[in-house]
Amino acid sequence: MNPIRAIRGMNDILPDEALRWREVEETAARLLASYGYGEVRLPLVEQTDLFRRSIGEVTDIVEKEMYSFEDRHGDSLSLRPEGTAGCVRAAIQQNLLASPCRLWYGGPMFRYERPQKGRQRQFHQIGAEAFGYAAPDIDAELIALSARLWRQLGIDDAVRLELNSIGAPEARARYREALVSYLAQHRDALDADSQRRLESNPLRILDSKDAGTQAVLDGAPALADYLDAEAAADFERLCSLLDAAGIAFVHNPRLVRGLDYYNKTVFEWVTGALGAQGTVCAGGRYDGLVAQLGGKATPGIGFAMGLERLVLLREALGVAPAVTAPDLYVVAVGDAAERVALAETERLRDALPTARIHRHAGGGSFKSQLKKADRSGAPLALVWGDDEVAAGEVVLKPLRGGEQRRLPLGELAAALAETMTQGH
RNA sequence: GUGGCCGUAGCUCACCAGGUAGAGCACCGGAUUGUGGCUCCGGAGGUAGGGGGUUCGAGACCCCUCGGCCACCCCA
């Protein structure tokens, strides 16, 4: 009988790696709170319609990547493929939009894609959304927040900011027409995927990886020339705010977004260190989405970062935290010693609440227990045998050099406190 | 959904004209009746991802399938 395996693309995160995740998550949570973002915890499942109406009917996500199913009442539900839609839904439903508000969330997202480096079917994002701010200063602040996060995570040298404006929907529609009519004349020079996108999603052709297609695009009309006046002015303002804040960026006029709800500002933080899936964080403005989902017209902007990719990047750069050894390893041989050791270890935990104490479990000889103590990486061991128990003492044994000594139980906590502070 | 490479012990990998599996590390035990790290000795651990085919004989060859990695696509 074959053992049951995890679902393809849905990974277990084991202790050593969970430690790295926790550091990223806690750093982000702390920073978001410091910028005034409040955490929201949102359902993993929403009505399928929420995603159809926000992300867009003709996107790959909605067409072929959602985990959708009918519940027992016959309603179509979907595992969330991204976080913004649910956050907007919650903001409308819970009446959070009366005045401007800043929210953040984290958790798993689901897309039925072929797994590869930096891409899995259950992946994890932390996202931030700001509602009710129409002016581009919030765009700059949100980007500054992310830039600060990269510094705190030690990856700022490995990521670059790409920025663009895709304008108002009407301007984009005019541009799309111009682009399609130009590209249609060069249809044969486009790669097969781009030919297909000519009908489905022509703007996505702009960020095609195909060299021939990119060559054709060199002569194409530029999105920047079609921007509405407001978007152009806001973009200029955003660039100057970023300059003033000392945040470097590159204007990538071919940067577009895969989700339909974006307008004006779009941006991505990308790295070359992760292979093909180099986008570590992406976002943009979505001024029409709240109204589109039935709320009072409210501008919005947000971004989402991919936890897997951030963790991978930190590992690649060697800035991930090392696994920490325990401070103390407790060894006890024999029933009486085990009884004393368990009780005394509990008292030690009272006296030294932050100490990482690994009490050996499961018995075994002195030899085997000390071998485990050594392997654990702990600098110190506590050893109990029949002799120590009879004498009311315990052996404090340095594992990285130094002589072991026996001391009365009453002196143990103080001796340990001293030894451990010396070690730090 | 498409393509390339790859699945042998817990891990990293060997063997291979096709003749019914081996090393290092890790694990367990001993040398050392209660003391780790070094050394030596021993032990356990594999239906060679799964299924089918060719063959006297398949881990090696063929097919299917599952899984992994990377890329396309998509995107965090």
UniProtKB/TrEMBL annotation:
<dbReference type="GO" id="GO:0005737">
    <property type="term" value="C:cytoplasm"/>
</dbReference>
<comment type="subunit">
    <text>Homodimer.</text>
</comment>
<dbReference type="Pfam" id="PF13393">
    <property type="entry name" value="tRNA-synt_His"/>
</dbReference>
<keyword id="KW-0067">ATP-binding</keyword>
<comment type="similarity">
    <text>Belongs to the class-II aminoacyl-tRNA synthetase family.</text>
</comment>
<dbReference type="InterPro" id="IPR006195">
    <property type="entry name" value="aa-tRNA-synth_II"/>
</dbReference>
<feature type="binding site">
    <location>
        <begin position="261"/>
        <end position="262"/>
    </location>
    <ligand>
        <name>L-histidine</name>
    </ligand>
</feature>
<keyword id="KW-0963">Cytoplasm</keyword>
<keyword id="KW-0648">Protein biosynthesis</keyword>
<dbReference type="InterPro" id="IPR004516">
    <property type="entry name" value="HisRS/HisZ"/>
</dbReference>
<keyword id="KW-0436">Ligase</keyword>
<feature type="binding site">
    <location>
        <begin position="82"/>
        <end position="84"/>
    </location>
    <ligand>
        <name>L-histidine</name>
    </ligand>
</feature>
<dbReference type="InterPro" id="IPR033656">
    <property type="entry name" value="HisRS_anticodon"/>
</dbReference>
<protein>
    <recommendedName>
        <fullName>Histidine--tRNA ligase</fullName>
        <ecNumber>6.1.1.21</ecNumber>
    </recommendedName>
</protein>
<dbReference type="InterPro" id="IPR004154">
    <property type="entry name" value="Anticodon-bd"/>
</dbReference>
<feature type="binding site">
    <location>
        <position position="257"/>
    </location>
    <ligand>
        <name>L-histidine</name>
    </ligand>
</feature>
<dbReference type="Pfam" id="PF03129">
    <property type="entry name" value="HGTP_anticodon"/>
</dbReference>
<dbReference type="InterPro" id="IPR045864">
    <property type="entry name" value="aa-tRNA-synth_II/BPL/LPL"/>
</dbReference>
<feature type="binding site">
    <location>
        <position position="111"/>
    </location>
    <ligand>
        <name>L-histidine</name>
    </ligand>
</feature>
<dbReference type="InterPro" id="IPR041715">
    <property type="entry name" value="HisRS-like_core"/>
</dbReference>
<feature type="domain" description="Aminoacyl-transfer RNA synthetases class-II family profile">
    <location>
        <begin position="1"/>
        <end position="326"/>
    </location>
</feature>
<dbReference type="GO" id="GO:0004821">
    <property type="term" value="F:histidine-tRNA ligase activity"/>
</dbReference>
<dbReference type="GO" id="GO:0005524">
    <property type="term" value="F:ATP binding"/>
</dbReference>
<keyword id="KW-0030">Aminoacyl-tRNA synthetase</keyword>
<feature type="binding site">
    <location>
        <position position="129"/>
    </location>
    <ligand>
        <name>L-histidine</name>
    </ligand>
</feature>
<dbReference type="GO" id="GO:0006427">
    <property type="term" value="P:histidyl-tRNA aminoacylation"/>
</dbReference>
<feature type="binding site">
    <location>
        <position position="125"/>
    </location>
    <ligand>
        <name>L-histidine</name>
    </ligand>
</feature>
<dbReference type="InterPro" id="IPR036621">
    <property type="entry name" value="Anticodon-bd_dom_sf"/>
</dbReference>
<keyword id="KW-0547">Nucleotide-binding</keyword>
<dbReference type="InterPro" id="IPR015807">
    <property type="entry name" value="His-tRNA-ligase"/>
</dbReference>
